[in-house]
Specification:
mainly beta, single chain, 1 helix
Length: 64
């Protein structure tokens, strides 16, 4: 289970087979306070339960 405090801005995560980049925590949304962006720049807002149960951190490969 992923803790919501462990989310890092601009890090890559996976949600239901889709790669998303964490953007920020929304102050105005109570039901879906976590904002992610997909590769096409579309915004996806997730609830705390969705983040804890379905979001996994992906390790990005870096070239030396």
């Amino acid at each position: 289970m992923l803790e919501t405090t462990a989310l890092q801005r601009n890090h890559l995560y996976e949600f239901r087979g889709q790669q998303l980049r964490y953007s920020h925590r929304s102050n105005c949304r109570v039901n879906a306070p976590f904002v992610f962006n997909d590769s096409k720049g579309r915004r996806k807002e997730l609830s705390q339960n969705q983040v804890q149960l379905e979001v996994f951190e992906l390790q990005e490969f870096r070239e030396n």
